[in-house]
Design a protein that fits this description.
Distance between the termini: 12 Å
Mean pLDDT: 93
Strand order of the largest sheet: 2-1-3-4-5
Oligomer: single chain
Strand content: 15-25%
Structural class: alpha/beta
Number of strands: 5
Length: 131
Protein backbone atom coordinates (compact mmCIF):
# COMPACT_ATOMS: atom_id res chain seq x y z
CA UNK A 1 0.00 0.00 0.00
CA UNK A 2 1.34 3.41 -0.99
CA UNK A 3 1.38 6.20 1.56
CA UNK A 4 0.43 9.81 0.92
CA UNK A 5 0.93 12.62 3.42
CA UNK A 6 -0.74 16.01 3.19
CA UNK A 7 1.18 18.61 5.15
CA UNK A 8 -1.38 21.37 5.75
CA UNK A 9 0.54 24.25 7.30
CA UNK A 10 1.02 27.90 6.36
CA UNK A 11 4.72 27.88 7.28
CA UNK A 12 6.84 26.85 4.24
CA UNK A 13 9.82 26.01 6.45
CA UNK A 14 7.73 23.62 8.59
CA UNK A 15 6.36 21.97 5.43
CA UNK A 16 9.84 21.61 3.94
CA UNK A 17 11.36 20.14 7.11
CA UNK A 18 8.46 17.71 7.61
CA UNK A 19 8.71 16.51 4.03
CA UNK A 20 12.48 15.98 4.40
CA UNK A 21 11.98 14.07 7.67
CA UNK A 22 9.26 11.89 6.10
CA UNK A 23 11.40 11.11 3.06
CA UNK A 24 14.40 10.32 5.27
CA UNK A 25 12.26 7.73 7.02
CA UNK A 26 10.51 6.43 3.87
CA UNK A 27 11.42 7.88 0.47
CA UNK A 28 8.42 6.22 -1.20
CA UNK A 29 5.87 8.40 0.64
CA UNK A 30 4.06 10.90 -1.58
CA UNK A 31 4.01 14.31 0.12
CA UNK A 32 1.78 17.23 -0.77
CA UNK A 33 2.45 20.61 0.77
CA UNK A 34 -0.70 22.66 1.33
CA UNK A 35 -0.32 26.22 2.63
CA UNK A 36 -3.83 26.45 4.09
CA UNK A 37 -6.89 24.35 4.81
CA UNK A 38 -8.62 25.25 1.54
CA UNK A 39 -5.69 23.93 -0.50
CA UNK A 40 -5.62 20.86 1.75
CA UNK A 41 -9.31 20.10 1.17
CA UNK A 42 -8.87 20.57 -2.57
CA UNK A 43 -5.90 18.17 -2.59
CA UNK A 44 -7.88 15.67 -0.52
CA UNK A 45 -10.69 15.84 -3.09
CA UNK A 46 -8.27 14.91 -5.88
CA UNK A 47 -7.10 11.89 -3.89
CA UNK A 48 -10.59 10.51 -3.33
CA UNK A 49 -10.93 6.82 -4.25
CA UNK A 50 -7.18 6.32 -4.18
CA UNK A 51 -5.90 3.07 -2.74
CA UNK A 52 -3.16 4.99 -0.90
CA UNK A 53 -3.12 5.29 2.86
CA UNK A 54 -3.72 8.99 3.50
CA UNK A 55 -2.26 10.93 6.42
CA UNK A 56 -3.08 14.58 7.06
CA UNK A 57 -0.75 16.61 9.29
CA UNK A 58 -2.94 19.62 10.10
CA UNK A 59 -1.91 22.92 11.63
CA UNK A 60 -4.60 24.87 13.50
CA UNK A 61 -3.70 28.53 12.98
CA UNK A 62 -3.61 29.33 9.25
CA UNK A 63 -5.01 32.00 6.96
CA UNK A 64 -7.82 31.41 4.44
CA UNK A 65 -9.17 28.22 6.08
CA UNK A 66 -7.78 27.29 9.49
CA UNK A 67 -7.51 23.82 10.97
CA UNK A 68 -10.89 23.94 12.73
CA UNK A 69 -12.62 25.11 9.54
CA UNK A 70 -10.83 22.33 7.66
CA UNK A 71 -12.14 19.78 10.16
CA UNK A 72 -15.66 21.23 9.95
CA UNK A 73 -15.51 20.91 6.14
CA UNK A 74 -14.39 17.26 6.16
CA UNK A 75 -17.96 15.84 6.17
CA UNK A 76 -18.32 17.23 2.61
CA UNK A 77 -15.63 14.75 1.60
CA UNK A 78 -16.65 11.14 1.98
CA UNK A 79 -13.77 9.84 4.09
CA UNK A 80 -15.09 6.31 3.52
CA UNK A 81 -13.87 6.67 -0.07
CA UNK A 82 -10.32 6.35 1.27
CA UNK A 83 -9.01 2.88 1.99
CA UNK A 84 -7.13 4.28 4.97
CA UNK A 85 -7.31 7.81 6.39
CA UNK A 86 -5.62 9.30 9.46
CA UNK A 87 -5.48 12.89 10.64
CA UNK A 88 -3.09 14.37 13.16
CA UNK A 89 -3.10 17.88 14.60
CA UNK A 90 0.35 19.45 14.46
CA UNK A 91 0.45 22.85 16.10
CA UNK A 92 2.59 25.34 17.94
CA UNK A 93 -0.46 26.39 19.96
CA UNK A 94 -0.02 26.05 23.70
CA UNK A 95 -3.66 26.93 24.35
CA UNK A 96 -5.17 24.09 26.38
CA UNK A 97 -8.60 24.83 24.86
CA UNK A 98 -7.21 23.77 21.46
CA UNK A 99 -6.29 20.38 22.86
CA UNK A 100 -9.72 20.05 24.48
CA UNK A 101 -11.47 21.14 21.29
CA UNK A 102 -9.48 18.57 19.31
CA UNK A 103 -10.95 15.83 21.50
CA UNK A 104 -14.40 16.70 20.14
CA UNK A 105 -13.35 15.57 16.64
CA UNK A 106 -13.30 11.77 16.41
CA UNK A 107 -11.34 11.92 13.15
CA UNK A 108 -8.25 13.26 14.97
CA UNK A 109 -5.96 10.37 15.78
CA UNK A 110 -3.49 12.37 17.90
CA UNK A 111 -2.52 15.91 18.88
CA UNK A 112 1.16 16.83 18.48
CA UNK A 113 3.05 19.99 19.37
CA UNK A 114 5.60 21.35 16.92
CA UNK A 115 8.22 20.45 16.13
CA UNK A 116 7.60 16.81 15.32
CA UNK A 117 10.43 14.53 16.30
CA UNK A 118 11.86 11.78 14.13
CA UNK A 119 10.20 9.33 16.54
CA UNK A 120 6.80 10.97 15.97
CA UNK A 121 7.20 10.74 12.18
CA UNK A 122 8.11 7.08 12.52
CA UNK A 123 5.13 6.49 14.83
CA UNK A 124 2.72 8.14 12.38
CA UNK A 125 3.99 6.26 9.32
CA UNK A 126 4.22 2.95 11.18
CA UNK A 127 0.62 3.30 12.33
CA UNK A 128 -0.45 3.02 8.70
CA UNK A 129 0.98 -0.48 8.58
CA UNK A 130 -0.77 -1.61 11.76
CA UNK A 131 -4.26 -0.18 11.67
Amino acid sequence: MNKTVLIVDDDPIVRFILQKMIHNFDSSVNCYQCDNGEVGLSQLETLRNTTDAIVVLLDINMPVLNGWEFLDSLPKINLNSFSKFQLYILTSSTDETDKLKAQSYPVIKKFYHKPLSKQHIEEILDSLEIA
